[in-house]
C-alpha cells in the first residue's frame, strides 16, 4: 500500500526555519548564464544584465558592518537600494532571483513571502530582525500583501533590515505601489505601501509563461485504478484523497508543508474537485508552491488541476495566487506524464 501524506505530521523548529532560508532544490543549479532569454522579449535579456549588475554591487561591498552600512547609506541616498522583479507567471523571475542569491557571497537568506512571515511568526519580530539583520542579502520570492496586518509587518521588517544594511531583492506579479490592491482597502494603508515601494528599483520581465510555451495542455485526470497503478509504479509515491489532504493541511502551519513532502517521489490525489472555501484554496496554493519547489510530479483523478479554483475565485483579490498555482500544478502534471 502506498504511503499517505495525511499520516505525516512534520515538526519544524525555529533554528531549522532559518537554516532552510535558501533557494528550493529546483533552483539549486540555476545561474545567470543558465537563464535563456526569449528572443522575442528584450526585457528578459535586460533583466539578466540588471540582476547581474545588482549582484556585483552587493557582492563588492565589504562584509564588515561599518563599511557595509556606509555604502548602503550612500545607495539609499541615491533613492532605491533594493531590486524588484515584476512580471507575469513563468517568465523566469524566480530563476533570476535565485541566480542573484547564488552570485552574492557571504551570509544571505532566500524565502518566499509566506516563508518570511512564517519565520516572523515562529521567532517573534525582534528575533527575526536580529537574525536576518546579520545577512548581506534577503531575497524574497512571490512578494504579496494579502491583508493589512501583513502590510504593516513587512513594511516595518524591511525598514529595519534595510536600515541595518541588509539589501533586499524581491519578485512579484504586482508592482510594489500596487501591492494589496483589490484585497483590502489599500487607500487606508497607502503610506505604508508607498514607503515600501520607495525602497525598490523595478525591473520589468515580460513574456509568456515558459511552463506552457509551445506545450500541450495538462494531461487529463486518470481514473482511480489508473491512479493506483501509477503510484505502484513509482517507488516513494503517496496517495491521498483530495478532501482528506485538504483537511490535513488545515492542521499544519504552512511552514511545515515543505517538510511534509520531503522525500516524496510523486504525489497522487484521488477525487480532485473545485474548491469553494477561500481558506482551503489558499492552503492548496501554499502546498502547490512547495511541490513545485521540490519538482514533485502530481497525478490526479477527478477534475483536472486547472479546475481547482472557481471562476469567482479567479476574479477575486487572490487571482494571481490561484493562477500561479494552476500554472505550477499543470507543469507538475506534465512531469508525471513523462514518468509513465
Automatic annotation (TrEMBL):
One biological process term in Gene Ontology: cell division
InterPro entries tied to this protein: ATPase_AFG1-like, P-loop_NTPase
Top-level taxonomic group: Bacteria
GO cellular component, one term: cytoplasm
Alphabetical keyword list: ATP-binding, Cell cycle, Cell division, Nucleotide-binding
One GO MF term: ATP binding
Protein name: Cell division protein ZapE
Organism of provenance: Actinokineospora auranticolor
Taxonomy of the source species: Bacteria, Bacillati, Actinomycetota, Actinomycetes, Pseudonocardiales
Amino acid at each position: 500500500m502506498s504511503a499517505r501524506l495525511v499520516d505525516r505530521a512534520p515538526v519544524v523548529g525555529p533554528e531549522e526555519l532559518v537554516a532552510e532560508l535558501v533557494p528550493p532544490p529546483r533552483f539549486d543549479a540555476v545561474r545567470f548564464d543558465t537563464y535563456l532569454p526569449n528572443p522575442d522579449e528584450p526585457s528578459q535579456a535586460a533583466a539578466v544584465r540588471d540582476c547581474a549588475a545588482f549582484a556585483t554591487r552587493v557582492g563588492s561591498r565589504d562584509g564588515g558592518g561599518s563599511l557595509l552600512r556606509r555604502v548602503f547609506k550612500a545607495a539609499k541616498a541615491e533613492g532605491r537600494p533594493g531590486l524588484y522583479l515584476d512580471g507575469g507567471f513563468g517568465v523566469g523571475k524566480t530563476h533570476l532571483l535565485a541566480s542573484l542569491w547564488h552570485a552574492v557571497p557571504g551570509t544571505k537568506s532566500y524565502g518566499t513571502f509566506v516563508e518570511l512571515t512564517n519565520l516572523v511568526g515562529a521567532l517573534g519580530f525582534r528575533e527575526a530582525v536580529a537574525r536576518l539583520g546579520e545577512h548581506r542579502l534577503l531575497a524574497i520570492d512571490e512578494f504579496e500583501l494579502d491583508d493589512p496586518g501583513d502590510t504593516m509587518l513587512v513594511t516595518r521588517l524591511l525598514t529595519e533590515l534595510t536600515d541595518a544594511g541588509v539589501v533586499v531583492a524581491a519578485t512579484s506579479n504586482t508592482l510594489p505601489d500596487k501591492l494589496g490592491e483589490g484585497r483590502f482597502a489599500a487607500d487606508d494603508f497607502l503610506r505604508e505601501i508607498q514607503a515600501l515601494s520607495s525602497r525598490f528599483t523595478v525591473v520589468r520581465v515580460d513574456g509568456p509563461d515558459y511552463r506552457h510555451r509551445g506545450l500541450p495542455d495538462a494531461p487529463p485526470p486518470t481514473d482511480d485504478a489508473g491512479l493506483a497503478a501509477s503510484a505502484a509504479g513509482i517507488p516513494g509515491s503517496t496517495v491521498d484523497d483530495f478532501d482528506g489532504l485538504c483537511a490535513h493541511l488545515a492542521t499544519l502551519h504552512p511552514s511545515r508543508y515543505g517538510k511534509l513532502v520531503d522525500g516524496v517521489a510523486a504525489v497522487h490525489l484521488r477525487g480532485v474537485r473545485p474548491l469553494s472555501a477561500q481558506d482551503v484554496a489558499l492552503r492548496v496554493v501554499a502546498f502547490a508552491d512547495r511541490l513545485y519547489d521540490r519538482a514533485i510530479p502530481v497525478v490526479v483523478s477527478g477534475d483536472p488541476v486547472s479546475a481547482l479554483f472557481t471562476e469567482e475565485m479567479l476574479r477575486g483579490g487572490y487571482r494571481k495566487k490561484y493562477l500561479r498555482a494552476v500554472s505550477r500544478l499543470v507543469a507538475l502534471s506534465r512531469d508525471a506524464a513523462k514518468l509513465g
